[in-house]
Amino acid sequence: MNGWADPAPRAVDGRAPDVFSTAGTVPMRQFSDRDAVDFAIVGTGCGGGVLAAKLAEAGFSVVAFDAGPFWRPLADFASDEREQDKLYWLDPRISAGDDPVEFGQNNSGRAVGGSTVHFQMVALRFRPEWFASRSRLGYGVDWPVDWRTMWRYYDEVERACAISGPVNYPWGPKRHYPYRAHEVNAAGQVLARGAEALGVPWAPTPLATVSAPRGKSPPCVYRGMCKIGCSTNAKQSVLITFIPRALDAGAEIRDLAMVGRIETEDGRATGVEYHRDGQWRFQRARNVVCAGYSIETPRLLLNSASGAHPHGLANSSGNVGRYLMVHLNDAVWGVMEDEIRWYKVPPSMACCEHWNYIDDKDFDGGYSFMSQGPLPTDFARMLVTNEGVFGDELHRQMALYNRMAGLKMVGETMPQADNRVTLADEHDDLGLPRAHVTYSCCDNDRRMRRHARDFMARMLAAAGGSELLETGSTAHLMGGCRMGNDPETSVTDSDGRTWDIPNLWVCDGSLMPTAGGVNPSMTIMANAARIADRITALAGRGEAERAHG
Amino acid sequence: MQKLARNTRRPDVQAALIGVGALALLGGTAILARRKARLAPQRKVQLAAQTMGASIVADSAMQHLRGGFHNPAMYAAPALATLSTAGTLARTQAGRPLHVAAIATGAAGLSFHAYNIVKRPGGVSWNNLFYAAPIGAPGGLAVTGALALAQRATTRGHGRLLAGFVALATLAETAEVALLHYRGAWHNPAMFTPVTLPPVAAALLLDQALWPRPAVRRLTRGALRLMAAMGVVGTGFHIYGVSRNMGGWGNWRQTAFAGPPVPAPSSFCALALAGDAALDLIEDAP
């Protein structure tokens, strides 16, 4: 059992939920299963949601599927930590390897809008050199995309999400955020004090929650539950930005529609088999796009194996599911003299990218770190699972909750072929094989972890923290269907088109060849916006499978 | 294709157009209005001081209440603004110490606010200028006291002095507005109005202070009347702005404090009135 208590599908009968209301709906174009739509997109998060909007706006007929519900934030989200567990992908996955990955709130969303419905809104850009990390920094693998191209698309998606960021960002090429940065809270000021004490730069974190009104989005009220489901719509998730755009432009969104297989015929995708409202159905499509993120996209491609594709779709190179990456998410926590109340406002109000831009260190790659604001249950769980704290000692440490501050890293791990997604023997409620995820850190990852823990501890101590304790974790997912210039070492080309099947595309974080040392949402969105334009351009030249319905 | 669902991409052009339309209507009426029962310049300055004082009383009380009056000195601004404003009711020498105290408190407030900014991590940074104590706000209290003292202006020289003072105060106010509207990301195009119109009025006033040419005076009066109308329309915009926070006016105990300050735009009305009084003195006084 998956333990989900889903509502019935809401995007039905030509109407979709109005995300800016408590119970309203808006008109929605609806397609028949029999009609071959231009694009069937599997997933509606940072990749699929952006792609659906831009392709629909370009005039393509689009149906986007999501396994999760279509929520109305104003009615469905409450300021309660546990109530929002419904936003995570909690269906069991088999996790193995030397450092098995924990799945759930750190890396997997399940809703229309994807993980952005519950993400922490950190909106950072890659360092330009990371797009050519092998050529310029000597590790990992180069992206098949130039950083200047990506930079333009960062601009586009940051405008689309009205990112609130600093006027002057201390690292990397100049950028301009459409909205001003939020006020740095007490937890963020701890990071700032520590950074100034150690002589490294810091900045208010660019965040995807508005600092001034925007359309029907009120400015953030700093309630502090937004790291889960923002119940005011200040958070500029894909659910309230690109999904309404997609609907505006005539896309259909099918919620609670779990795609189980992609069918192929004569070397081409013909549509998707999906489960909705208690039955399996088949949607014909001229193009299929996998945008289910780094676990579900490989799982879907592998589960779509057929006689012509015995090892799964797009897997002639054997790379589907490989080179999976996470971010190291270790943290250092300390007790401060003053009251901090870190749960107030978005959790990561201040950040430091110093070690993303300095290469003089004993490991490849980089890491950023941010101030933190874990909610009580989350923090208690962390104390129990990481530190083994229990009983009276747990009570004592939780009593310090309002005076604690913490710094948590987002650390780049190396792409390794053996970190991968395969299909397990076990099946889920729909009869689909569960994902089997193998993950092990390499020596470089461990060196980075040591470096980050040491530096964050020194910074926290410099800011006045005492009783320091460290915890280990991971966050985010990248890779699994990486793009590249060589069909032997990648799954797709630079446009996200699979090397093996010309009308099968991938558009999500699984395309990322390297992980970078920042939260990946903006990079996934920028890449999706770029791919949408590439598809449109290719179609204009007759090189994509375009035919208007 | 027809837009089916509302989204949040576009700026609030509709509200901006309504506001600019209201400004055109109100400002146009004000510019064209004939000066029949003309008030004495001293009475205009008194009204200006009272309007500015009321704006400062409400604004400083709200903002310092929002700050929890965590420093007892924070009581000084609303208290002195109240006393100085009340002191203008009796146009006698008796209120003079109060007005001087208001000016001194305003000046001291500037130092307090500057200290509040620099003591934070980052020092003089955009984030601290946006969110620490507003750098120029205490100046409004000093302006209130100064206008209250200016009630006794009688000569053409006084008029020129007052015109110059009002021009500089208007420019200072504009700078504060520019900073805070920049913080608001100019999310409504009408937010550009109070940073473009007042400098024009201030420049014309300054011109009158330096070279009191009658030919420019009429234009200056028009600009000041438009600025006064902008203060009224701006108040409407700020009332609307509060409604755009979560819960709107139904949640006023939070939104009235978190949204744009409703009393603030009326200070432009006060400055416009004082500027008009200065022009009267330049024009008519011996």
Automatic annotation (TrEMBL), chain A:
Pfam families registered for this protein in UniProt: GMC_oxred_C (PF05199), GMC_oxred_N (PF00732)
Keyword Ribosomal protein: no
Domain Glucose-methanol-choline oxidoreductase C-terminal per the UniProt entry, residue ranges: 415-528
Key word Phosphoprotein present: no
Domain annotation Glucose-methanol-choline oxidoreductase N-terminal: ranges: 108-328
Domain of life: Bacteria
Keywords annotated in UniProt: FAD, Flavoprotein, Oxidoreductase
Chain segments annotated as transmembrane: none
UniProt record similarity statement: Belongs to the GMC oxidoreductase family.
Record-given protein name: GMC family oxidoreductase
Organism field: Paracoccus stylophorae
Lineage: Bacteria, Pseudomonadati, Pseudomonadota, Alphaproteobacteria, Rhodobacterales
From TrEMBL, chain B:
Residue intervals passing through the bilayer: 13-33, 98-117, 129-149, 161-180, 192-211, 223-242
Keyword terms: Membrane, Transmembrane, Transmembrane helix
Protein name stated in the entry: Uncharacterized protein
Lineage: Bacteria, Pseudomonadati, Pseudomonadota, Alphaproteobacteria, Rhodobacterales
